[in-house]
């Protein structure tokens, strides 16, 4: 298993429903990722700001993406080759 830190902004299509958020697809470096499985999700923080994390399973790899609630921004934080 090989992990690569990325920390790059991404474009995300997400569903916001009844106080929850779920990414549906995302774009990184002109490549679109969809039809993936969300392996897990968790809540973290940066100071007093909430950060929502998602482990996306796609094509044999795991992509860790995060949503910074206060800034309303999405980032790809890590890629893990499984």
From TrEMBL:
It comes from the Bacteria. This is Uncharacterized protein. The lineage of its organism: Bacteria, Bacillati, Bacillota, Hydrogenispora.
């Amino acid at each position: 298993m090989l992990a690569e830190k990325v920390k790059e902004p991404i474009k995300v299509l997400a569903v916001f429903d009844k106080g929850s958020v779920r990414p549906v697809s995302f774009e990184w470096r002109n490549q679109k990722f969809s039809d993936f499985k969300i392996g897990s999700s968790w809540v973290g923080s940066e100071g007093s700001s909430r950060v929502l994390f998602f482990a996306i399973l796609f094509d044999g790899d795991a992509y860790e993406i995060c949503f910074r609630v206060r800034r309303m921004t999405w980032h790809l934080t890590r890629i893990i080759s499984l």
